[in-house]
Amino acid sequence: MNTPTSSPRPTLHQSWRLLVLLGAVYVVVILISVGMRADSTSDFRDFWENAVHLRETGEISTELGVHNYLPFFTIFMLPWGSLPLIVASVLFSALSLVLFGVTVVLTENLLNDGLPHKVRPALLIALLLALPYVHSCAVLGNVMLLVLFLVVTCWFLVERGREWEAGAALGLAVLIKLLPGALLVFFLLKRRWRVLTSSVAVIVVLGLGLPLAALGWQRTVKQHEEFWHGAIKQHSAYTTLTAEKPIKAMLSNNSLPIVLRRLMTPVDGQRGSDRPLLVNFANLSPPALVGLYGAMMALVLGTSGWVTLRGGQRWPPDSIAEGRRLRAQFGLWCLVALVCTPLLWTHYLPLAYWPLAFLADRADRSRRAHEPARLTIVALVLWGVGALLLAWPAARAAGAQLWSAVMLWLALMLIAWRVVATAPPPRAPRVVQPPEEDKDAPAG
Q1: What's the CA gap between 151 and 168, in Å, rounded?
Q2: CA 82, CA 313: separation in Å to the nearest integer?
């Protein structure tokens, strides 16, 4: 009697094992570095000190380095304040890097309808292009890797038809960092009411509920007023464009308002140095700067909105091309968030991981299908050049990282406008010819 044999389990390809091993080594090295410099200046130290201050005094301070975050954020980070600084910083960076790894897996799963058998060149390209900014985030202990995870998780859940959960993930991301709030506009234009409703509910319930429970009504109102005056008005694009001495003029800030100031007016991009770093080629008046900035914002937001409304209205999409259009539009609005923010630190740029992965995937599929993808390749190359120019202060002051993000935005805008199916052509079905009749065989 024959016993049924079970099918062998699929084994992990050696390339995946190697990638995981390299990632693990990188994480260990980063965590050692984070532990050694925990007491020095870093973003996480500021978060931790505010959490400790809240735990000890019951108040949120804006004098300890955390002045561009909602009151919710310090309460959200409160558990970390119960740990020693070194332990908390190492654990937070470890969690951030693990979540980035999950983000990579989710992205690859979406772009391929499941993880491929082995690591694709497109994945490696996206990883290498994002690595300088991921590294900055991990070393500083910033929250953007967590925000990136929530943003990609939102889109993963949307594609799986779980829009309520997707909105909750996006709402939490917006509370941690206002930057992905641009994606609310995307879902509004796509009329995804469940995602929007869930996001707004999370923002209101957690964003107001936690501060009210922890601080009371009066202090909650006061904290939000301070956030409005300190984070929104003081660091607004208008203030940056018109102030005699912009507050965040250092070259690590690559936002459009300050880049225009450095290019169009004699603003020092390297404060604290004996020799000023000037890269301007003009000296425009504040009204002219505001007009130029307004025109550029109108162009970016207007064309992004028009392209988003133009196609991909079916949900879920009914074709591969429409699915790619939607993915391109989502990536487009990730870049709108980066291009339109009044503050753009280097560690904000991991938010471009989905656009990078999408474009790398498209370039790979175009190569296999022998189709041109020149703009996609140029955009990826220029992003890589922007990362290399991190080593050149003058290029950073001139907005090298901003312009590389603008190039990604342009590539995705054109893809979303005119999606070309770039999947490898399907194999022709094998036609089996019927056997010729045997003329000598008897009929019937």
Answers
A1: 10
A2: 48
The residue whose two tokens read 């936002």 is 255
Alpha-carbon distance of 121 to 357, in angstroms, equals: 11
pLDDT at res. 420: 39
Kindly report the pTM of this predicted structure.
0.89
Q: pLDDT tens for residues 335-356?
A: 999 999 999 999 999 999 999 9
DSSP 362: H
Residue whose pair of structure tokens reads 């690591």 in the numeric block: 119
Q: Is the peptide bond before 316 cis (omega within 30 degrees of 0)?
A: yes
Rounded to an integer, what distance in angstroms lies between the CA atom of residue 131 and that of residue 33? 16
Whether the CA torsion 248, 254, 260, 264 is positive or negative: it is positive
Q: What helix, strand, coil percent values describe the chain, rounded to 5? A: 70, 0, 30
Q: Give the percent of the chain with pLDDT over 70.
A: 88
Which stretch of 2-6, 115-119, 187-191, 220-224 has the lowest confidence by average pLDDT? 2-6
Is residue 163 within 8 Å of residue 198, measured between CB atoms? yes
The length of the chain is: 444
CA-wise closest residue to 411 among 331, 353, 340: 331
Query: What amino acid is encoded at 295 in this protein?
Result: A
* 262 neighbors 279 (Cβ within 8 angstroms): yes
DSSP letters spanning 236-258:
SHHHHHH-SS-TT-STT---HHH
Average of per-residue pLDDT across 275-284: 90
- Alpha helices by DSSP H, listed for 6-120, are 14-36, 43-57, 71-76, 85-112
Q: Please report the beta strands in 90-177, taking only residues with DSSP state E, as ranges in sequence order.
A: none
